[in-house]
Amino acid sequence: MQGTFVDVSEKSGIAAFKGRTMGVTAGDYDGDGYPDIYVANDKTENFLFHNKGNGTFEEIATEAGAAFGQNGESTSAMGPVFFDADNTGKVDLWVSDSKYNACCATPANCRSSISPSKPVFAASCAIYKLGHGRL
Questions:
Q1: Listed residue (13, 18, 29, 9) closest to 129, CA to CA
Q2: What letter would DSSP give residue 93?
Q3: What does the alpha-carbon distance between residue 24 and residue 56 come to, in Å, rounded to a whole number?
Q4: Cβ-contact 25, 37 below 8 angstroms
Q5: Residues 62 and 126: beta-carbon distance below 8 Å
Q6: End-to-end Cα, the chain, rounded Å
Q7: 1/112 Cα distance (integer angstroms)
Q8: What are the angstrom distances between the C-alpha of 98 and each of 14, 15, 49, 57?
Q9: Cα angle 11-26-8, degrees, rounded to a multiple of 5
Q10: Residue 78 and residue 94: Cα distance in Å, rounded?
Q11: With contact defined as beta carbons under 8 Å apart, do 43 and 74 qualify?
């Protein structure tokens, strides 16, 4: 049995965004039943594509506070993962990064670092609390 693949990147709206991708993850961060996509880029802004449920996506990383590093800089983001970091039943976003150790909350203030004396994870990382409070 052979399957087929249809390229819908143009139709979905994702093709308009170019980056130097170092990793991708999909998960339903807002609990609307549709998988959203996060793209970690090297030295350019990252992308968070919100699934609109009709075959299209809206890029919202800047407004969600998940596009740049803790100081508003483009970083070497890589290896993103959607998962429940704090066991709240809500999806969080882990993004490893070569520049900083930070755990962030969005949309309130993603660039607020948690002190290294209170590490959440040992690796360089950012955890974006997408719309549901601080870590």
A1: 29
A2: E
A3: 17
A4: yes
A5: no
A6: 47
A7: 52
A8: 26, 27, 23, 28
A9: 15
A10: 10
A11: yes
Amino acid at 92: D
Long-range CB contacts (within 8 A, 24+) of 109-112: 109/65, 110/64, 110/65, 110/66, 110/70, 111/65, 111/68, 111/69, 111/70, 111/71, 111/72, 112/70
DSSP 8-state code for residue 9: H
pLDDT tens, residue by residue, 19-74 = 999 999 999 888 899 999 999 999 899 999 999 999 999 999 888 888 887 677 78
Query: What average pLDDT is seen over the chain?
Result: 75
- Over residues 71-83, the mean pLDDT reads 80
Higher pLDDT, 101 or 51: 51
- Rounded to 10 degrees, the C-alpha dihedral 6/33/90/46 comes to 30
Asked whether 120 and 127 are in contact (CB, 8 A), the reply is yes
**Which tokens go with 115?**
């002190």
73, amino acid identity: E
